[in-house]
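Review form for a predicted model. The reviewer records the input and the model, then writes brief findings.
Reviewer: anonymous (R2)
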Amino acid sequence: MAKGPTYNLPFRRRREKKTNYTRRKALLISGIPRLVIRVTGKHTIAQLTESTPSGDRVVTSANSKELKNKFGWKAGSNNIPACYLTGLLAGKRANSKMMKKAIVDIGLRRLSKGSRIFCTLKGAIDSGLEIPHKKEILPEDRRIKGEHIAEYAKKLSSNPDQYKTRFSQYLKNGLKPEDLPEHFEQVKNKISETSKEAT
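Model under review:
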């Protein structure tokens, strides 16, 4: 780190708002694999990584794009149910690699109760991974299943134009948003069944 008489220049990745080195150091010292969760504008990514002297090594990962391509997911790829399913998929794959424990790495994101990051965490926990957490930060089951989306769709159905605009992707994929909770359970079961076959 560059230093001078009147200033300290932070590391480049800190300046670019990519890495919190204080938090990263604490995670590395633990020696436990990290569940790295990143939520973009379109997708959710969950990776199980191990730290080595030469850098981080990704042991296994899951991307919400896979939900559509491999499991027939017809809803959005970065909504709350999709985040949960991505975490579940990553966790199941970690189980097949004999990984039992992890700690969550949310990068520079601020903690927000029930956020999409913690939906992904909930999915990984439900897969069987042991991850330290506080129960109050996790979302409610009804939100994980997308019941709040289904209820909103029912209310909006009285206005066909808005309904078609808001849920155009769902309808294009042949899914009525009111049926999202049932669709969620179907895809969740597919992920669990696929994981059993792989082990």
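Findings: The chain has a mean pLDDT of 87.
Further findings: The first helix runs from residue 12 to 15.
Recommendation: see findings above.
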